[in-house]
Write a structure and sequence with these properties.
Strand content of chain A: under 5%
Shape of chain A: elongated
Radius of gyration of chain A: 19 Å
CATH topology of the largest domain in chain A: Tetracycline Repressor, domain 2
Distance between the termini of chain A: 61 Å
Largest sheet of chain A: none
Number of domains of chain A: 2
CATH architecture of the largest domain in chain A: Orthogonal Bundle
Oligomer: homodimer
Largest interface: A-B, 53 and 53 residues
Number of helices of chain A: 9
Number of strands of chain A: 0
Order of helices and strands of chain A: HHHHHHHHH
Chain lengths: 192, 192
DNA sequence: CGAAACCTACCGTGCTACCGGTAGGCGCGT
DNA sequence: ACGCGCCTACCGGTAGCACGGTAGGTTTCG
């Protein structure tokens, strides 16, 4: 029972950390703020995660499990049609989007603990997307690009849209815009 | 001479600030680090810019002048072909790209002093792009999108590519990828 | 002389992290 | 059955540092 309670606590803490990072970024986040949100003192929090950085990597690993686990096949093999739904899903989870957009932004700075994570993650995701595209369209997409080159753009559009959407949700229809892009990739439809 | 020297100093300071933000982000940047880089004490620095935030807005205004001034017409009317060159130019200025990518990332957090700047800036840039696209292609792009919808994607691709490129410059050919996207926008070429 | 351009000294705050507790539960030997 | 010791889950105190910012000088130049 104590063990279960402990796991539960850790999950609470991770959720709270996610929120706090969404609000202030990693550098702006403080152990005290996270602790307060789960009803602990800062010292109690450090009992579960020995350092601030440990907390961050736990959040990152959590995410990693989540979207390599739910993604279907082994190497992040998203079905192409499902990508649109993913974006729609994200549009309903602004906190998570904010967290990872903030972290991505910070991660390009020096010695940031999330940098390696994101670097590796993006190469994986690009490879996965490229594989999916190749499986679906062969070596040349309808738009004329190779799967690898299209994959870079696909990822770029997803990230870039998130920033515009976070800054001004009213002005940017994220899922719609992503759909537009998918349309471009698929090339000009023959009939109607 | 003192006046000239002063202006010169301020320019030095802004350049140093840009560098420090590129390395540590705004929140991670410290007045001491900026001061050291221009050979001042932290208090000497505060003589020129009374607060840390004043320093940031100066950097932002500087950028604003730069790329509304150099952009050609009034409302950021970039010629479409020049966008490719801009991306190539950026690929040679990693420090600036890093600075603004880091700031963009931070700006989605709460109470960030750059948030309003980015929000306004993006609406402007989108509008400018849309105007350019409309001038060049009319109300429907070859790819089938309206100028406004294409503008969102254009901006998203530029930003998204920057992050991938900053994290792994070897793996991502930023100008090439952007060229690919422009190709998609322009739709399938008729002849060859 | 007077203003601009600094510097030295200092303050208050906030943050991470360590040290040393304490309270309760649980196994274990006798 | 029961007490002993250990483990988990915390909290109070605080060290140690870095940061942003203020106050008040001092040099330097016109």
């Amino acid at each position: 029972m104590a063990r279960a309670r402990s796991e539960e606590r850790r999950a609470e803490i991770l959720r709270a950390t996610l929120e706090v990072i969404a609000e202030r970024g990693y550098r702006g986040a403080t152990l005290g703020a996270v602790a307060e949100r789960v009803g602990l003192t800062q010292q109690g929090l450090l009992h579960y995660f020995p350092t601030k950085e440990a907390l961050l990597v736990a959040v990152l690993e959590d995410r990693d499990r989540w979207d390599t686990g739910g993604g279907g096949g082994e190497e992040g093999a998203w079905r192409l049609e499902l990508l649109g739904s993913l974006v729609e899903y994200n549009a309903m989870r602004p906190v998570i989007v904010r967290t990872f957009s903030a972290l991505l932004g910070e991660s390009v700075t020096e010695d940031h603990p999330a940098r390696e994570f994101f670097t590796r993650r993006y190469t994986q995701v690009r490879a996965g997307m490229a594989a999916t595209l190749r499986a679906e369209y062969g070596d040349t997409l309808p738009g004329g690009l190779s799967p690898e080159r299209a994959a870079v753009l696909l990822v770029a559009v997803m990230d870039g849209l998130q920033y515009q959407w976070l800054l001004d949700p009213e002005a940017v229809d994220m899922p719609g815009a992503f759909g537009d892009f998918l349309g471009l990739l698929k090339g000009p439809e023959a009939p109607s």
